[in-house]
Amino acid sequence: MKKASNLLLSKFNRQRSIKAAPLLSRAYIFENSPSSSSSSQFHSTGRHLQCCAKTRGLIFKLHQFQTNPSRNLNTLRKLREKSDLEEAFESGKTSGEMFRVFKDMEACEDPEKALSFADRALKVLDQDGKPSLLVAVALQLMGSVSYGLKRFNDSLGYLNKANRLLGRLEEEGIANVENIRPVLHAVQLELGNVKTAMGRREEALLNFKKALEIKEMTLGKDSKELGVGYRDLAEAYVSVLNFKEALPFGLKALEIHRKGLGHNSVEVAHDRRILGVIFTRMEEHEKALEQNQLSQRVLKNWGLSSELLRAEIDAANMQIALGKYDEAINTLKSIVQQTEKDTLCHWEKFADSKRCLEIACGNLDKKETVSPIEVAEAYCEISMLYENMNEFETAISLLKRTLAILEKRPQEQQSEGGVSARTGWLLLLKGEVPQAIPYLENAVEKLKDSFGSRHFGVGYIYNNLGAAYLELDRPQSATQIFAVAKDILDVSLGPHHADSIETCQNLSKAYSAMGSYTLAIEFQQRVIDAWEGH
């Protein structure tokens, strides 16, 4: 396995192949940036699985449920509130009164009831068919509640309708622009969140940018909230692996927060954390480490131990990427001392490592219903450790458990695709080719939805799928798939990139297996020419 410089962002190291035939692409894991703060604009998108071939601490914050003697009284109070609000809604005489009551109902009721009342409010507000700001707000709230119920298509319909209505209100001057903007901002944010949950991340970025533009028009240029908006947009770009676009927004966030809150602000620490992620992915490891160290100082001053621990783990990976192995070892030793011994494995001795991992898995089994996404992340990372020890069967088993969790959550489509790709890749390495194909095909579909059909990660998975077809003596299918992979990688990475060249090599082998020797020779000559110019 390659050193950590290639582990932070998958570069598909070409370490193994089935038999000696097609060259496999290293399993690709799509990683999102860590959530930077609780005030994130995109809070409702949920936490996306991070799974990369780096060893991070498996740290869990588990909710502890304690007996509350006032729980029954609280329940009775909420039921009384519900009854009072329903009565108020029924007796409301004006649209304004009904809408205020509905908003109160949304704050304390279950989502199904809130959606029902929103629908009733909309029918009253929209009786005359004339466009109004209240109708737009009702649609926005229905979209928001539907999103919370994971009814993404319904949510998208309500929000798109609200967006069109707001545009009409502004164009025709029916409502004051100052009143329209807050609602439009909420609609754009929700549209971005819904599209992200549906895997349409590139489209979501446009909505997030529009939401930020509205913030820029309504807030002061040094507003803390605007700084958070810039950071959130940087994180959104990181989630689609567009680090160059993410960088200026991350830097703007840091400038605003440093100027308004000072160097020792938690917001500044969060800004530096996302900048560290961006610089790492851009392979500017010195800059990444500098941002990380500055962030650590602030987190330490504020006593944020959990976030500090993750920052230290990031620092260890950066030190490895820079070849500072002694420093990295010292950093990791410090991390181990701060962590319960059943949460990290001791990497020096395989027997001890396996025992620690077994203990960790045993603990995770009990916590799957409490923190499913965190447990899925842990399963994925533990599978990486088993893979490093060539324990492929156990690694695959853990990845399948990860998929079982993610498949139930539509908003985790991107993560599901990455884990499915890795599962298929490991099955190929074990020689279980027929079993690998469904996982690879599923990965292609999920990641095409998330990143688009021309993303280099999709090209890598197509390359592995072609290798699987060739292994099953289906050279015609392999040729078609390798050709798609080559087109994608030639555009996204360039024809002289090592992975593009190897895909061209695979295409030559597939043509040879078909007996199309003229084409096989032609593509083999392209391989030679490309390596000569590499």
Provide structural commentary:
Residues 1-21, 27-82 and 340-348 have low confidence and may be disordered. The protein folds into 4 domains: 77-217, Alpha Horseshoe (Serine Threonine Protein Phosphatase 5, Tetratricopeptide repeat); 219-344, Tetratricopeptide repeat domain (Serine Threonine Protein Phosphatase 5, Tetratricopeptide repeat, Alpha Horseshoe), CATH 1.25.40; 345-452, Serine Threonine Protein Phosphatase 5, Tetratricopeptide repeat, CATH 1.25.40; 465-533, Serine Threonine Protein Phosphatase 5, Tetratricopeptide repeat (Alpha Horseshoe). It is globular. It is built from 22 helices and no strands. With 534 residues, it is mostly helical. Pfam families: TPR_10 (PF13374), TPR_12 (PF13424), TPR_8 (PF13181). It comes from Gossypium mustelinum (Cotton). Keywords: TPR repeat. This is MalT-like TPR region domain-containing protein.
Beta-strand content bin: under 5%
What Rg is obtained from the alpha carbons, in whole angstroms?
26 Å
In CATH, the homologous superfamily of the largest domain goes by the name Tetratricopeptide repeat domain
Approximately how much helix is present in the residues? over 70%
Q: Uncertain runs with pLDDT below 50, 5 residues or more? A: 1-21, 27-82, 340-348
**Overall morphology:** globular
CATH architecture of the largest domain: Alpha Horseshoe
CATH class of the largest domain: Mainly Alpha
CATH topology of the largest domain: the name is Serine Threonine Protein Phosphatase 5, Tetratricopeptide repeat
Order of helices and strands: HHHHHHHHHHHHHHHHHHHHHH
Number of strands: 0
User: Mean of the pLDDT scores?
Assistant: 76
Protein name: MalT-like TPR region domain-containing protein
Organism: Gossypium mustelinum (Cotton)
Keywords: TPR repeat
InterPro entries: TPR-like_helical_dom_sf (IPR011990), TPR_rpt (IPR019734)
